[in-house]
TrEMBL record:
PANTHER family: RIESKE 2FE-2S IRON-SULFUR PROTEIN YHFW-RELATED, SARCOSINE DEHYDROGENASE-RELATED. It holds the Pfam family Rieske. SUPFAM superfamilies: FAD/NAD(P)-binding domain (SSF51905), ISP domain (SSF50022). This is FAD-dependent oxidoreductase. Keywords: 2Fe-2S, Disulfide bond, Iron, Iron-sulfur, Metal-binding. It comes from Pontibacter silvestris. Residues 419-510 form the Rieske domain. CDD domains: Rieske_YhfW_C (cd03477).
């Protein structure tokens, strides 16, 4: 199958980016927000409305992080299923999750109407379904029952034109989908001004919690009463890193030979996961998007396989003409199935919003609603539910233990089995390997032209060894999800600093 644009997300390839200046010099504001994804921009909107002066500091461009690489679906249920919340917490918690997420979708719709944001926002149904013959009926039935208990408008009926064979169905009306990048770009443009200073190309290098907080950037320092880490996973060392698992997930946008299915969020249950399918149309034509094949960051050797599996699935279910875009992006799954939104544990004036799994367009919006209320001194009915200082040993136990055994395993195993290839010349074109030369632990990649790119293989976040990702040509840390380019630059995740150049010290950030 032909591919037009490799590893580029549909949204960033087809949406015009507005440009904002970089910070130049020091600044004092009420609140500094690090990161201009859906979380940072939604929070900025609500804080400005509450009368605060805000600076948003973005390393790259507004919306260019995970928000611009998502699939743009907005729904009240969650990736891990509502029934998981009921079993890990309670039915009351499950209802509160559904109600708060519904309120966040309504918030997005209200902003679209308030600012007339052209982002193809549409109310559509959300479907979770299984096909005949794969024994997954029970899972769908359980979620339908959970959705009903959570007060969502759910039925077990599939519409007549449904594009898949169905054995079991949970069909929730009045969910939504949009172009997430156009939305965030539109909202940012609407709020930018004297009380909402937006800076792009402004990488934050350190945040010091205090009274005031001090945010150091490469281009000056920002002093603020409060700081919000809206960087998807908070930068630096935070307790929540030990309670989240980073996952890489794969997406594709294809053109079909025939007509697209009707608008809707189609979650097709598979063994151990689901594929998420949705149509999208803009002036460039009709696309069908698919998302799936998640795996823990840095835990897969042949990442290309994941794209191939998505392609096989699409070919089996649709008359695909060709792949137009394919890309991957990251999720952080929380140990107890609830995100961490609010004051950072052990800090006073730093706020975090993370652990969204694949549901963060809604949770990021909800974070803005909750954190802005806390800062403005207003009661928020959901603040306690998502409070990062909560301790839920029973709900978190299996995942918490697994995550930390995984980290310990990688710390030991990757150091023990280092350097099976001790010769740089053995590395073939397109291949990346961790090797040891003169007691120095290195990550070496040979590009298609035969040139070697060598950096330290020790993640500067907490000292784990990075693994090569052959689909995206990056070095990915299996412990907390930091990712680096083949030249060692931070791409995403909690690390502030780049992989060191060879012959440099390997100190961690602590
Ligand atoms: C493939 C995929 C599909 C998804 N689809 C959906 C979906 O359909 N629906 C849904 O609800 N959720 C979805 N999600 C989840 C959702 O996309 C994310 O949870 C959400 O976008 C996170 O938003 P954010 O603003 O917190 O983070 P981001 O959008 O990642 O924004 C963080 C920003 O911080 C900036 N930043 C990082 N470090 C620094 C620094 N040092 N200094 C300054 N700025 C910095 C980054 O450049 C970035 O712009 C999907 C996730 C994946 C991986």
């Amino acid at each position: 199958m032909a591919v037009d644009h490799i590893t580029q997300a549909l949204w960033s390839a087809t949406t015009a980016f507005k440009t904002y200046p970089s910070l130049s010099g020091d600044l004092e504001v009420d609140v500094a927000i690090v990161g201009a994804g859906i979380t940072g921009i939604s929070t900025a909107y609500s804080l400005v409305k509450a009368g605060k002066k805000v600076a948003v500091l973005e390393a790259l461009k507004v919306g260019s992080g995970t928000t611009g690489s998502s699939t743009g679906n907005l729904y009240a249920p969650i990736d891990e299923r509502l029934y998981t919340i009921a079993s890990k917490h309670s039915e009351e918690t499950m209802r509160a999750v559904a109600t708060s997420r519904t309120a966040a979708i309504d918030f997005i719709e209200q902003r679209v109407l308030e600012f007339n944001i052209d982002c193809e926002f549409n109310r559509v149904p959300w479907y979770l379904f299984s096909e005949p013959g794969n024994d997954l009926m029970a899972q769908v039935g359980k979620e339908r029952e959970a959705a009903e208990k959570a007060g969502l408008p759910v039925t077990g009926e599939a519409p007549a034109s449904f594009p898949f064979k169905v054995e079991s169905m949970a069909n929730i009306a009045h969910q939504a989908q949009f172009n997430p990048l156009k939305y965030v770009q539109g909202l940012a443009a609407a709020i930018a001004g004297d009380n909402c200073l937006l800076f792009e190309g402004t990488k934050v290098m350190d945040v010091e919690d205090g009274e005031p907080c001090v945010v150091q950037t490469e281009r000056g320092k920002v002093t603020a009463k409060q700081v919000i880490m809206a960087t998807h996973s908070p930068k630096g060392i935070y307790a929540v890193h030990t309670a989240m698992e980073p996952y890489r997930e794969y997406a594709m946008a294809v053109r079909l030979k025939g007509a697209s299915p009707a608008g809707g969020v189609y979650w097709h249950v598979q063994q151990m996961q689901h594929y998420s399918v949705r149509p999208y149309s803009n002036e460039q034509g009709n696309f069908l998007l698919i998302l799936g094949e998640a795996h823990k960051v840095g835990h897969k050797e042949h990442n290309e396989e994941n794209f191939l599996k998505l392609e096989e699935y699409l070919k089996a279910h649709f008359d695909v003409d060709h792949i137009v875009y394919k890309w991957a992006a990251q999720n952080y799954k929380p140990a107890d199935a609830l995100p961490y939104i609010g004051t950072s544990p052990l800090q006073n004036n730093t706020y975090i919003a993370t652990g969204f799994a694949a549901d963060g367009l809604v949770y990021g919006t909800l974070s803005g609603m909750i954190i802005s209320d806390i800062i403005a001194g207003k009661e928020n009915e959901w603040a306690k539910l998502y409070d990062p200082t909560r301790f839920t040993p029973i709900a978190s136990a299996p995942k918490f233990a697994k995550e930390n055994i995984d980290v310990a395993f990688h710390l030991v195993k990757d150091f023990l089995f280092y350097g099976e290839t001790d010769q740089l010349k053995e590395i073939r074109a397109g291949e990346g390997k961790t090797i040891e030369i003169d007691d120095e632990k290195l990550a070496a990649y040979r590009d298609e032209e035969g040139q070697l790119h060598v950096v330290s293989s020790i993640c500067p976040h907490m000292g784990c060894v990075v693994h090569f990702n052959n689909a995206e040509k990056s070095w990915d840390c299996p412990c907390h999800g930091s990712r680096f380019s083949i030249e060692g630059e931070v791409l995403e995740g909690p690390a502030y600093h780049n992989l060191a150049k060879p012959k440099a010290t390997n100190d961690t950030e602590e």
